[in-house]
Amino acid sequence: MEFHGAGDPYFGGTAADWSLYNSEDGALAFISAAEAQRRKLVKAYFPTVSEAETAGAVASTRKGRISALPIKPRLDVPTVQISWIVGNKHVGEPDRALAEDLADRAKRAGASDADLIAQVVAFALACHRANQALVAHFRL
Questions:
Q1: d(CA 128, CA 98)
Q2: Which of 41, 65, 75, 129 is 20 to 30 A from 55, alpha carbon to alpha carbon?
Q3: Dmax of the chain from CA atoms?
């Protein structure tokens, strides 16, 4: 989320809290919810808070305050299966390859909602980061 302006617009303020979305050209942009819905854009999800804040700072054109807000995965995100699949992959596997694999698996399983696929990929990358941190911690 990017927080910009001050005061509630209903009472004459200029505050506008926008979320980070994946635009049609693949770039990240802060967009109002109404505009994103009109353009059928998908929110940007990230595996870690620091990655989200960094991406938000880069995408900000209004130079507001950036805050990464945690989400709870949708109930139809198969978290147990994803963590098992990612746990059986090598920790050195590139993020892009892992993301493509999980997106393909989700589509083959019947997922057609772009938001669901984005959450599946973000959760998989979060599991991947956790596995990488364990390997680094135990110096394996």
A1: 9
A2: 75
A3: 58
Between helix 79-87 and helix 114-138 the angle, nearest 10°, is 40
pTM of the model as a whole: 0.84
What does the pLDDT read at residue 1? Answer: 84
pLDDT tens digit string along 37-56?
Answer: 999 999 999 999 999 999 99
Taking only the tens place, the pLDDT of each residue in 110-132 is 999 999 999 999 999 999 999 99
Q: What is the pLDDT of residues 56-105, one digit of tens each?
A: 999 998 887 888 989 999 999 999 999 999 999 999 999 999 999 999 99
CA dist list (Å): 118 to 27, 114, 123, 130: 15, 6, 9, 18
Distance CA 87, CA 91 (A): 8
Which residues have CB under 8 Å from 47's CB, separation 6+?
Answer: 122, 123, 125, 126, 128, 129
